[in-house]
Design brief:
Radius of gyration: 20 Å
Structural class: alpha/beta
Number of domains: 1
Shape: globular
């Protein structure tokens, strides 16, 4: 009985991270995904500054994140507003917590959502330990942070600060359609050609 050799599978080639990054920079796209921390902020900020220095063509920022460290998120937001290039943000998957201000770094007309993206507003949280005085200081900082976040979201959506505070008091989930109605995005898109 004849024996047939199984055809060898062609090994799947993984692109090195640097190659992926170079391709993303080549199409002027930044991906902000996963938990927002100092590493994610450093990568996104570096990419934004490199692209802005090259020329002032629009930069697309895909945001897909559960949130994370607030100051790292604010750093990304502030640098995206600091650069001269037009920033276009696209929510994909989920845009939660401090990822929302990153999405809001683009002008309202340049904020988009893919159809199945979910959005989450909520008040900041943080663990505090140690002496009573240190716990009180941490609690005061969280309250200040919450006020800043509420003011930013209100300013970008047209809602009142009081409304945003009420909505974000507990986990406030929104579908893409609800985020559109709330003012987080200007349009729900299915493909890149719909970005105007």
């Amino acid at each position: 009985m004849p024996v047939f050799d199984e055809p060898e599978e062609t090994p799947r080639r993984e692109l090195p991270q640097d190659a992926v990054l170079n391709r993303m920079l080549g199409i002027r796209t930044i991906l902000v995904s996963g938990e927002i921390d100092q590493h994610v902020a450093e990568r996104a900020i570096s990419q934004a500054l490199i692209l802005d220095a090259a020329n002032h063509d629009p930069i697309r920022v895909i945001v897909s994140s559960q949130g994370g460290h607030v100051d790292s998120g604010y750093a990304i937001h502030d640098v995206l507003q600091y650069i001269d290039s037009t920033v276009i943000t696209v929510g994909a998957g989920w845009v939660a917590s401090i990822a929302v201000p990153i999405l809001l770094s683009a002008a309202k007309k340049n904020r988009y959502s893919l159809p199945n993206t979910r959005f989450l507003l909520h008040q900041p949280s943080g663990g505090a330990g140690g002496q009573a005085a240190d716990i009180r200081i941490a609690a005061e900082e969280i309250l200040k942070l919450r006020q800043r976040l509420n003011e930013l979201i209100a300013g970008e959506t047209g809602k009142s600060v009081e409304q945003v505070a009420l909505d974000s008091d507990r986990n406030f989930w929104m579908s893409a359609e609800q985020a559109l109605a709330y003012g987080l995005v200007s349009k729900i898109i299915k493909n890149r050609n719909e970005i105007t």
